[in-house]
Amino acid sequence: MTAIDDDIIAALLAQAQTVRERAYAPYSNFPVGAALLLNDGSTAVGCNVENASYPLGLCAERSAVANAVAAGNRHFVAVAVVGRGSRTLWPCGGCRQVLSEFGDLWVVSRAPSPSRWVKRRLSQLLPESFGEEDLT
Ligand code: THU
Description:
Blueprint: H1 6-20, E1 33-38, E2 43-47, H2 60-70, E3 76-82, H3 93-100, E4 106-110, E5 117-121, H4 122-125
Parallel strand pairs: 3-4
Antiparallel strand pairs: 1-2, 1-3, 4-5
Tetrahydrodeoxyuridine is lined by residues 25, 28, 30, 32, 48, 50, 57, 59-61, 81, 91-92, 95.
């Protein structure tokens, strides 16, 4: 996978920031936004959606994955995740697994200045993952 340029990363983080404002997180008070960049240049966004029955809450990344798949594109290039302020937030373990179903995308998160953001390959965040090939 090729590198993604800084302007694209900035735009993706901005979309994650915007959708974060629509998060439904009354129990944790920890809104999260995620924006997926797809291979045709389009994006799909998601936010966390909590529930009074706590375990039923949905993470932002999984919400973005569902939106992308429902829109008809499963070819992910990158995902930007935004939590509180400029603190780096990497997807939780469950979301890493869900994202890994669709390939080894870039994962981008904010970072305190001067770096502004950091990126990793999903395979760095979830090495030796379980996948479809293990089911054969
Ligand atoms: N959360 C996400 O949406 N994504 C993550 O990667 C980490 C955690 C949500 C789940 C829950 O609604 C809140 O953040 C606190 O854990």
